[in-house]
Q: What sequence folds into this?
């Protein structure tokens, strides 16, 4: 790798990490601002579920549209536009005057976040030297910036009173709006995408939906979708409902905010570690540990006595497991597809996860409205978590088997 290429690669990783940080703030803004929003607008449990799901509903369509456009007009244009959109509407969320405006702005914010996320994955993956393991590790490490952003959102809620919930969305809007012109000036388009657009002979048609099932990619695609759906169902339910559940379980608002910070910092650390492990001999043990520990930690949190220190530690460890699982899935998505259909492949995989993101908060609201306490609600999720873990482990196994059989074509 020459100096100019290394400089461009490093620049891409930095800009994408900054965008992921901004996304992390927005993704957790609703959950940590929930107490203040509820106090001002008097939302019911069902309205809270709709509010939490509105952003992820926009995310679903943003991921589909952004992924499709990226294979035609380029990754950079879609990413920069999407960052600007979610920054603008996050800022407008801080100006919401009633429940409908609040939900509408969150929906449009999600549209921008959804368009940005597949592009982060594609750009980082294509910034490497073509080594599938290194690509996956780079994606996982950049993804670690997302929970760091979530920790910033939790820290703001910890330092500010619940009445100042709008501050979280102001910060979450200004940062991406500041980042946008910097990305316009400094972020380069994917060189791999530009080469593929010129030398398109023999590659699947750009943006082709059916092509993501061709060439032996059908099983990988289905397992990726199932893993994303169930993994993000759990993640978004926890991101949006965990502070409320912890308060219901006897913790103070400050302790709940501290637990949310621990969840994110633990998750960010674990995402970096698993990212480094993906390119080495510890790949399979790290993945096994992640997905086996996930249901066990969920049980431990559900059964833990109401001792703040024990709960805080368990939440931090659960954050490690949940975020490491997401880092693994995000690293798998781009390397599953060739460059010409990577945008649509990753976009549809992310969109499948967004369906889980929509279902998760609504499911939490439904279970809470049905009278399920924090412990019972967490145990209700256990079957889904187990199925999701099995799908992810199968995905890893099938990918490794494919690589052994056809190492030259397993990672296009």
A:
């Amino acid at each position: 790798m020459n100096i100019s290429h290394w400089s461009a690669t490093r620049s891409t990783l930095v800009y994408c990490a900054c965008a992921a940080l901004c996304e992390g703030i927005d993704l957790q803004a609703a959950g940590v601002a929930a107490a203040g929003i509820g106090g001002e607008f008097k939302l019911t449990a069902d309205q809270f579920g709709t509010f939490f799901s509105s952003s992820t509903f926009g995310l679903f369509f943003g991921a589909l549209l952004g992924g499709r456009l990226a294979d035609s007009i380029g990754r950079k244009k879609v990413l920069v536009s999407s960052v600007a959109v979610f920054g603008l509407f996050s800022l407008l969320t801080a100006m919401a005057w009633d429940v409908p405006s609040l939900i509408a702005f969150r929906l449009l914010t999600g549209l921008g976040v959804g368009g940005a996320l597949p592009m982060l994955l594609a750009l980082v993956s294509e910034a490497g030297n073509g080594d599938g393991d290194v690509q996956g590790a780079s994606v996982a490490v950049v993804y670690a910036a997302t929970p760091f952003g979530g920790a910033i959102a939790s820290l703001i809620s910890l330092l500010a009173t619940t009445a100042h919930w709008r501050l979280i969305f102001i910060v979450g809007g200004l940062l991406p709006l500041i980042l946008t012109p910097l990305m316009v000036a400094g972020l380069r388009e994917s060189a791999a995408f530009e080469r593929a657009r010129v030398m398109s002979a023999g590659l699947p048609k750009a943006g082709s939906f059916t092509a993501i099932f061709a060439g032996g990619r059908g099983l990988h695609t289905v397992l990726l979708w199932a893993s994303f759906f169930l993994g993000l169902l759990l993640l978004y339910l926890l991101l949006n409902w965990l502070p409320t559940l912890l308060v219901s379980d006897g913790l103070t608002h400050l302790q709940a905010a501290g637990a949310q910070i621990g969840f994110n910092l633990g998750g960010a650390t674990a995402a970096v570690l698993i990212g480094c492990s993906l390119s080495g001999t510890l790949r399979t043990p790290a993945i096994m540990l992640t997905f086996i520990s996930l249901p066990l930690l969920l049980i431990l949190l559900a059964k833990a006595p109401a001792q703040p220190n024990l709960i805080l530690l368990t939440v931090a460890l659960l954050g490690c497991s949940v975020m490491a699982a997401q880092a693994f899935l995000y690293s798998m998505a781009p390397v599953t597809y060739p460059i010409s259909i990577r945008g649509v492949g990753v976009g549809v995989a992310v969109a499948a996860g967004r369906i889980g993101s929509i279902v998760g908060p609504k499911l939490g609201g439904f279970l809470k409205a049905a009278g399920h306490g924090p412990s019972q609600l967490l145990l209700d999720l256990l079957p889904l978590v187990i199925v999701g873990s099995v799908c992810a482990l199968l995905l890893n196994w099938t990918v490794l088997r494919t690589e052994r059989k056809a190492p030259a074509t397993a990672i296009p």
